[in-house]
């Protein structure tokens, strides 16, 4: 089955999401867009939840969320079981959050990063594979914390 990348935004991330989608299309990367579809004001947790549920169900393998800062989306996304969302605006962090944390959601700030950098961050997020090994142990520890916390 072809891997599908999920993408979603709020009004603060809408313009950047359009640029990212154009870039994904240019690269031939299959994606599914879960809104929003204009700059009219919406609530970012709704879009974080819509995207995270598609990753949890296995319909999408990884996702990109864009809001004004990337921060609200990342806070909301990280409330979902199995989601490891990273809010980042530099290439080093994006590379290593894939290599070491196996982050499955990248959160970008449409009011923080320029288009050129954002596209580079998306490429790194899509193209970098998890290293596993000792990092798998640590990711498993995160899952264990999640399990304990969610049963409280
Ligand atoms: C919306 O104005 C803004 O709060 C949102 O896009 C995001 O930056 C939240 O973290």
Brief overview:
With 152 residues, the chain is α/β, with parallel strands linked by helices.
Describe the structure.
This protein has 152 residues and is α/β, with parallel strands linked by helices. Helices cover 48% and strands 14% of the residues. Strand 4, helix 4 and strand 5 (105-109) form a beta-alpha-beta unit. It is globular and about 40 Å long. The model has no long low-confidence stretch (mean pLDDT 98). Bound molecules: D-ribose. Residues 10, 12, 44, 67-69, 71-72 line the site of D-ribose.
Helix fraction bin: 40-55%
Based on CA atoms alone, the radius of gyration comes out at: 15 Å
Contiguous uncertain segments of 5+ residues: none
What sort of overall outline do the alpha carbons produce when their principal axes are compared? globular
Largest sheet composition: 5 strands, parallel
Mean pLDDT: 98
Strand residue percentage: 5-15%
Instruction: Give the ligands present.
Output: D-ribose
Strand order of the largest sheet: 2-1-3-5-4
Structural class: alpha/beta
Question: Secondary-structure map with pairings?
Answer:
Elements: E1 5-9, H1 14-27, E2 31-33, H2 44-56, E3 62-67, H3 71-77, E4 85-87, H4 91-99, E5 105-109, H5 115-127, H6 134-150
Provide key terms for this protein.
single chain; 152 residues; alpha/beta; five-stranded parallel beta sheet; 5 strands; 48% helix; binds D-ribose
């Amino acid at each position: 089955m072809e891997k599908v990348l999920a993408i979603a935004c709020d009004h603060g991330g809408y313009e950047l999401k359009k640029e990212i989608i154009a870039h994904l299309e240019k690269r031939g990367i299959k994606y599914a867009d879960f809104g929003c579809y204009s700059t009219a004001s919406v609530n970012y947790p709704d879009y974080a939840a819509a995207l995270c549920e598609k990753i949890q169900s296995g319909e999408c393998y990884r996702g990109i969320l864009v809001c004004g800062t990337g921060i609200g989306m990342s806070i909301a996304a990280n409330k979902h079981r199995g989601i490891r969302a990273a809010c980042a605006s530099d290439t080093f962090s994006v590379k290593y959050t894939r290599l070491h944390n196996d982050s499955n959601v990248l959160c970008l700030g449409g009011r923080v990063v320029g288009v050129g950098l954002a596209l580079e961050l998306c490429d790194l997020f899509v193209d970098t594979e998890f290293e596993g090994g000792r990092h798998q142990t640590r990711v498993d520890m995160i899952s264990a914390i999640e399990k304990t916390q969610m049963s409280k």
